[in-house]
Description:
Order of helices and strands: EEEEEEEEEEEEEEEEEEEEEEE
Structural class: mainly beta
Number of strands: 23
Distance between the termini: 38 Å
Radius of gyration: 17 Å
Number of helices: 0
Shape: elongated
Strand content: over 45%
Helix content: under 10%
Amino acid sequence: MATRTWDGGAASDLWSLADNWDLNTLPFSGDDIQIAAGFGTTFFNGLSPLTNLTIASLNSGSNLNVSEGVLSINGTATVGADLSLTGGTLALNGTSSVNTFTQSSGSISGTGPLTITGASTITFGDHRGTGTTILKGPSTISSSGFYLDGGRTLRNENTLTWSGGQIDLNNNVDNTQIDGSGTINNIAGATFIASGDFASSIAASYFADTDTGAD
């Protein structure tokens, strides 16, 4: 295990380019990742050889985009800027915190809590696993909706506005039924708004053989 530091030496900001890392060495499984502020957006896009990478921790002061592949973080993850998810899977198994969050596809998974301190914008995507997604800033769910399953909890602590698509509390991911329906927890003092005609329904469906949805 080593600490791998981003220096942005390549022509594009892809994690899969060795020139972007100190000593021109790609991250390995179990590494701690450090990315300072001021690098714009770095991109984990699942390109070989980083199609499925498990790291020990992440500390990023710059924006991070995950678009393909699987990035797993077993310890603390901090993004002091924007975390955007446009595809792929980001598995968070430790305590994680991001400033702002944008999701148009892909999956958040894992057992650890994810705290979003600022605004969240979700137009499509899936949160699953036994962890909790905590919305501390104003948040929106719109367009194609949102899937919440595998026992995951979405906890709203601010104002959550749902204006489009279905919220599905037990999703079928990649044709695989996942045990454990999701939970939305709107804490005391928080506001959940269903706005307009395009916020279609909140549903529980696609139960697996041993799943009753009772959890």
